[in-house]
Amino acid sequence: MRRMTNARLTEALGLLGIGHAAARVYPVLLELAPAALSEIGAAAGLTGPELTSAYAELVAVGLASPAADDRDVVAPIPPAAGLEVLGRHRAAEVDASRLTVGGAFESFRRQRLAAYNDNLVEVVTGEAVGPRLRQAWASAREQIRQFDSPPYFPLSGATEDALATLARGVKQRVVYSQASIELPGNLEEAIEPCIEAGEQARVLPSVPVKLLIIDDAYALVSLSIKEADVHNTLLIVQPCGLLSALVALFEQSWQSALPFHGRAVPRPGGLLPADRRLLWLLAGGARDEVIARELGVSRRTLFRRMEVLMARLGARSRFQMALQAQRHGWL
């Protein structure tokens, strides 16, 4: 159990930009500190310059420091300030990537889209959108990568198409926007069934574009209302520099997004399924009224549950509660 918890903590630190070696040292630091740095390194399997560099990285981001006046003895320090800075840095990196790719796409669309005659980009509109979406899901052989956000094209059986693709063994990774989770009925009827069937899901406050990448063969980009005055227009992008940029944008966003596991299942430690679902919705950025609606409780009951969870975890804020829940293996 401890090894599994440490693995989750190491993964969480990696998502914040902490190096692999430092991410290995930090869980050991939490278990053994205050202790000599050499003892921490021995338990983490690191020595010499690699250990020194890993510890220096933890000190630099505000997660560790010498204990009292003895510089050979080290200990963790309250992480709130350091984690806030790391989170902002990661968010800034994603925003910069969005601006870069978005600017490149806009330049491409303005200067060349109308003149394209070599089938690198195809525009699909109206009633033709539905069949092309179904054809895309059916054609996938290895993996599907997707940015998901409302508004949705009215396509009956879309969830069934996704489930059938998963059943064929196609790997499916989806980054959902917060709006996707908060849309009434969407979490229970569309998102959670796919996660239970094996979909890997993560969540961001927003996604830069509605996107579906089929293998490495082509991508479907949905034009938003702001860009085209309609939401039933697709660009089909064949292999070219634009497709490579869209793949890179997805992978960058995937690394920065928060894992989302959807419907709660019973776990060790006495945590109720409803409470675990509460934690996932909270970690996914859902608002209080949305969490209360999805759990079928009042806001007052929701606040009482959060107070109980914070007390169990020894947390004084929602951020600390999420971090402690991660360390306990509840997320």
The tally of helices reads: 15
- Tell me the fraction of residues in β-strands, as a range: 15-25%
Count all strands and give the number: 11
**Helical percentage:** 40-55%
Describe the structure.
With 331 residues, this protein is α+β, with helices and mostly antiparallel strands. The chain contains 15 helices and eleven strands. An eight-stranded mixed sheet has the order 4-10-9-8-5-6-7-11, with helices on both faces. Strand 5, helix 7 (158-167) and strand 6 (171-177) form a beta-alpha-beta unit. Helix 1 crosses helix 2 and helix 2 packs across helix 4. The model is unreliable at 226-230 and 264-268 (pLDDT under 50).
Structure summary:
This protein has 15 helices and eleven strands.
Q: Which descriptors would you attach to this protein?
A:
331 residues; alpha+beta; globular; three-stranded antiparallel beta sheet; single chain; 15 helices
Question: Topology of this structure?
Answer:
Elements lengths: L1 H14 L4 H13 L2 E2 H8 L3 H13 L3 E4 L2 E7 L3 H32 L9 E5 L3 H11 L3 E6 L9 H10 L3 E7 H5 L3 H11 L3 E5 L5 E5 L3 E5 L2 H4 L4 E5 L3 H16 L1 E2 L13 H11 L4 H8 L3 H15 L4 H10 L4
Parallel strand pairs: 5-6, 6-7
Antiparallel strand pairs: 1-3, 2-3, 4-10, 5-8, 7-11, 8-9, 9-10
